[in-house]
Specification:
The protein is an all-alpha fold and 210 residues long. It is built from 9 helices and no strands. Helix 1 packs across helix 6 and helix 5 runs parallel beside helix 8. The protein is elongated. The relative contact order is 0.10. Keywords: DNA-binding, Transcription, Transcription regulation. It holds the Pfam family TetR_N. InterPro entries: Homeodomain-like_sf, HTH-type_TetR-like_transc_reg, HTH_TetR, KstR2_TetR_C, Tet_transcr_reg_TetR-rel_C_sf. This is TetR/AcrR family transcriptional regulator.
Amino acid sequence: MERSTTATGGGSSRREATRQKLYEAAVTLIAEQGFSATTVDEIAERAGVAKGTVYYNFASKSVLFEELLRHGVGLLTASLREAAEQTDLAGGTKVDALDAMIRAGLGFIARYPAFTQLYVAELWRTNRAWQSTLMVVRQQVVAVIEDVLRAGVANGEFSDEIDVPLTAAALVGMVLVAALDWQSFQPERSLDDVHAALSRLLQGRVSGSR
């Protein structure tokens, strides 16, 4: 029984490693040449696997891309949530939590710039099969920010007049756009430098008390 469990676990780990390689290959190629121009053969070649391996893991190129969106946004959401939780454990304020989440978001984008470019580009498209999935995963990111804002309103740290959904979306958008501008046009700036600029904006626009 133990041997069987171990074997199954090993197989699962290998499959996840393969899927990760396929995600990385797909996001790089699609960022370079677009979704339509990218073929399954190219994804397989870039990942170093057989074409059949792609179809074994994903029914089609579209399904691969949809799962890529879920995977990437899942990583981002987990990173933001962890930043907020660590701030709470350290006794920080909700503004501190938002600030930590901004830094976590910048760190994620610096690590996965190609994915971020694709995610932002796809948000503006309306003819994709995965549009509904994109809206779901986008809400997952925004919801983490909304939770912190609502907690701040409840404890009196934020004004109860703020529009929580719109403010959360604005904060996510601020980080995405500022980070892409940083990566594309100001790559010489450090993460600390960019974070400091957005942090000052946060202190003045959200807390209103510093």
